[in-house]
Amino acid sequence: MAQGFTPIVEFYGANAALLNQRLMHWSHTDAAGLESDRLELTLNIEGLEGLPSLSGKIGLRVGYQESGLVEKGEFVITQRTPVLFPMRLLIVATAAPFSASDASGYRQRRSASYGPITLGALFRQMVSRHGYSPRVAPALEGIAIAHIDQSNESDMAFITRLAKRYGAVTKPINELYVLAEAGQVKSLSGQQLPDVTLSVTEDNRPGDQAFITAKLDETSRAKYQGSRVTWWDAAAGKQRVVQVGVAPFKTLRQRCQNEAEARAVAEGELRRVGREDLKLQIDCPGNPLLSAEGLLLLDDTWPSYMQGRWSITKVTHVGDPVTGYRSSVTAGGLSA
């Protein structure tokens, strides 16, 4: 998708006319895991009689006049904050199932035990009761779980912990809930998005519309080349160890029920630390194709140590009359 020069933001659904006519500033945060996708808006309410009553779902599309709009999903308004002099209304909206009412009990703490069961079946069971259509990556579908406990934690927290245990990620996207390997969320949801390529211009200067700045952090906690997980051999009455990769090993505290489960957990952890040993932060011109769990490709205009594919963990898109349309990206390195 070619970038344009004239940013456009468009709302549809409930209150669309008011939002489109009165919008002054917007910010959309697209995140993975427990953090809710979040939309923050500032409206000019000068001349309006009373405070607007805002309810229902609002949809967001963002892009450029020259290249078209990209669908960013639907949100439910959870907070309104009126400000006087000047007359402004600050709005916060979140992507379901993160709404304040939480009608299905997604954030309600509960305790339960599961197993024997597969990862795919358990994920489907968890998200279906909240009205979502589950999508599971084939590589994760059949992973066997002998036993696992949900201990005084919400379904939201349990689903995220379950995915992390096997080196996977989860994401609600409108009516779908996806369990996938890093970088595969969008393809599972039916949104076939290519890698987003970023290039640095030769005259990369602050104040220029195409200006890009970046910071690379390397974390010492992720200097592992292998992972080690224990499991209980009931037949032999002893604890055994599964090792994946090479030394130095990261030893996980959890103990698994059998060798297959231990190996799946170890392989998932190795994939995770491989991605997270490097953390990249980029501020760039607004790009509506940048999204959490998507893939970012830095071409040969970047320094050699930054070039290649990255897994995006969080993106904040901002539209403002002063700064224009900008995107802030947090991404982790891919192990492969």
Automatic annotation (TrEMBL):
This is Phage late control D family protein.
